Amino acid sequence: MTTGGSRPGTDGQFVLLLGGTGEARELAQLLLAAQIPFESTLAGRVERPRLPVGAVRMGGFGGVEGLVEYLAAREITAVVDATHPFATGMSANAIAATNQAGVPLVRLERPGWSGRPDASEWHWVQGHDEAASAASNLGHRPLLTIGRQHLAAFVGPLADAEVTARVVDQPDLELPARWQVLHSRGPYTLEGERNLMVDARTDVLVTKDSGGSWTWPKMAAATELGIPIVVVRRHSEATGTNVVADAAAALDWVRTRVIEQ
Ligand code: NAP
Asked: Which residues, at least 6 apart from 50, have a Cβ–Cβ distance to it below 8 Å?
């Protein structure tokens, strides 16, 4: 399903913006303001997604082959992969499909938190299984902020813990009786995060290395309250791809690498 109008291209350029992040929405605004024809796409997994400005297509392409076909059918001249740092399946597909189709690709990825001075205090883990095990060793009242897709990894190790699991949409698996599901969506404030952790008597925070400032208040609140933080590392797929860190740099890439060539 596409909303927001048909292809407006006049100069032969048409950008596909793989979205689902604040940075993607920001870039959509910049592209619109710069009058560069583009279309955003969202996976369509969230019930009420925040929509970017401009035309939006909902739903996957059908793997690499589907995306290759889509690039040709829509005569896409450049792709910006602005999906979440943990949406590694889509990023891998974007690399493979643009290589096959000979379409230039840039990865817009906000920097992770690993470079921060306080990061050395955190418990860095390689994946959700390891995060579950670390959380069960560190506390009895974890706050899980890793979304709903990977909650299954925590159910066994934290079956007897007083878990607060914060999610946007209802998880599609049965959760232990002692778990509380908290439906909410950011942005969050430091005060709100502090209140949540105090009220829930949180003794360990579990997060992905999402990076950026959007979800930072929980990290600040946990640090302030002396709560240990388990951080799931990124597994970047962008090796060998152009990578930019913010929407303005992605717009520059679109302009210099695509529009002016
Ligand atoms: P994923 O595992 O990398 O992607 C799974 C499949 O969903 C892809 O193969 C693709 O289906 C479809 N898809 C994903 N992003 C798409 C997009 N922007 N446009 C069209 N199809 C897309 O991704 P995920 O981790 O499930 O994340 C889904 C979406 O939520 C992403 O767009 C991401 O930016 C956003 N998001 C993810 C997280 C997270 O922690 N993972 C957090 C916040 C937002 P086909 O193979 O059929 O093309």
From this structure: 25
